[in-house]
Amino acid sequence: MPLTRTPTKTTSRPAAHAPAGDTLLRADHVQLGYWTPRGFNLAVGDASFEVAPREKVIVIGPSGCGKSTLLKAIAGFITPTGGTISVSGRTSLEPGPDRAVVFQEFDQLFPWRTVLDNVAYPLRVNGRSRRDALARAQEYVELAGLAHAADRYPHQLSGGMKQRVAIARALALEPAILLMDEPFGSLDAITRQRLQAELNRIVDQTHVTLLFVTHSIEEALVLGDRVVVLGNSPSNVIEIVDVRDLGGPETVEYGQMRGHLRDLLAVDKPIADDEEEEVLDGDGS
Amino acid sequence: MATAASSIPVARPRAVGWKRLPVWVRRAIIFAALIAIWQAYVSFRDVNPLLFASPWDTATTFWDGLRDGTLTKPTKTTLLLLMEGIGIGILVAAVLTAFATLTDVGEDLLTLLTSILNPLPGVAVLPLAMLWFGINDKAILFVIANATIWPIAINISTGFKTANPTLVSVGRNIGLSRVRQITDVLAPAALPYAISGLKTAWAFAWRTIIAAELVFGVAGSEGGLGNYINNARLYFLTPQVFAGLVAIAILGVVFETVFGVLERRTIVRWGMKTS
């Protein structure tokens, strides 16, 4: 993957670029829609991108563009209406711990289990012995900076702590790819920044591959190696940009990139001209 | 919760007088006062002892009943019958709920049956039960089971339906089988509803069994508490009538306490219900 500072505009088939061995996740012309009482509604028109092992890829787009739907499809909760998603070479995807998900909702922890038990339980489910699971859970609870709260129940935790537990729980499963669906979306700005830094540290320590959905440009720039930009629904991939070598928020490059992403995401702006089929007849509201 | 007190002193309005006493002391005082009034009424108003027993007579009769078994035996009979009836009720409710959770027909069936049978007072089916089973324990069991099935079934079913969808998604994501999804996610998630259903069922069953025993009179294998009271009335053993009522009230309090402890150890502790 070339490390460029300037935005790299990808052609219509980014999947063709990298050799197959270098790809952990490949979305190939994925189309996603759902049935409403009034007919078929297309959420994602055509999305192609790929994620290499150990890469941190951010999917960003305006609200309602179908980015969460895309993540749910990768997690196996819904089946694409067109195209293919392959993870580690497999294309028929049922939900499974190899694609552990961290959700946006704070209530994703089991209220009847302690912090430690919330992390250990999925390990038990996946065949580890009790002792093994607890030891491992302890390790990941510590990694998430929650050793002092291991015996607490979720309702005794703040929102930020709950999300850390959810991250620890997902990572303890050692997923092939960690899927995160706006996990910091409901947090206040300060907690959000702190958790972004924490996540960066944890991801660097565990070398996990990350696919992270957000609508925040800053979050994308802080966390990502590459950013997949989706347009308005029914969305296509407008552009895939490399952001791994940007400096901090004070640098010129960062500012330029932020401006560029803002332009791309501006709702009232016409979509980039290499987009074909930007209007799909009749199925919008 | 258990965090250290904040450094800023919070001025709390000082309770004065009655409110300053702990709850249990306040209750104990009121309780003692009521007993005193009761005793005074019997002592100074020259009431007919065949119609009204003093607290002292009630207490001694109660105590004697515990010692010679005249009160403990019917209590045991009633409780055993109650447990058996509730047990049957829970089993049937579980089957119905499972059916309702797994199939659409089952769901409609449960909704329909519940809306018809739940409002029916438990004892109302007693004449029918007597026709079907005769005057025996089976009839009472039938009545209790009927009184418990519906509140339990409708509550658990609601608990399953309102289970947090995010948790269900998490369950699928970590690879839970369908069975474990029910036992490990849906069941605990529905626990607040299950407990509340059980509480209602117990209250229904308790009222129903006492009423049924009162109607049955002496018949049946061994008389229960309702029977004990009815017998005492027949022979004008008024202190025994009172002692029977006291036993029923005490058991009611005991069961409420048990449910309270159960809730505090589970759903209150887990923040699924505020105490």
Task: Describe the protein.
The complex is a heterodimer of chains A (285) and B (275). Chain A has 285 residues and is of the alpha/beta class. Chain A folds into two domains: 22-42 and 52-100 and 177-267, P-loop containing nucleotide triphosphate hydrolases (Rossmann fold), CATH 3.40.50.300; 109-174, no CATH class. Helices cover 31% and strands 21% of the residues of chain A. Chain A has a nine-stranded mixed β-sheet, sandwiched between helices. In chain A, α2 (115-125) crosses α3 (130-143), α2 (115-125) runs parallel beside α4 and α4 (159-172) runs parallel beside α5 (189-206). The radius of gyration of chain A is 19 Å and the shape is globular. Chain A starts with 24 loop residues before the first strand and ends in a 20-residue tail after the last helix. The relative contact order of chain A is 0.18. Chain B is an all-alpha fold and 275 residues long. Chain B has a single domain (70-268), classed as MetI-like (MetI-like fold). In chain B, 73% of the residues lie in helices and 0% in strands. Chain B has eleven helices and no strands. Chain B has helices at 23-44, 55-68, 72-102, 104-117, 126-133, 137-161, 165-173, 178-189, 191-216, 225-234, 238-268. Chain B is flat. Chain A binds chain B through residues 75, 77, 95-97, 99-101, 103, 105, 107-108, 110-112, 121-122, 125-126, 153-156, 173, and chain B through 1, 164, 166-167, 169-170, 172-176, 180, 184-185, 188, 191, 266, 269-272.
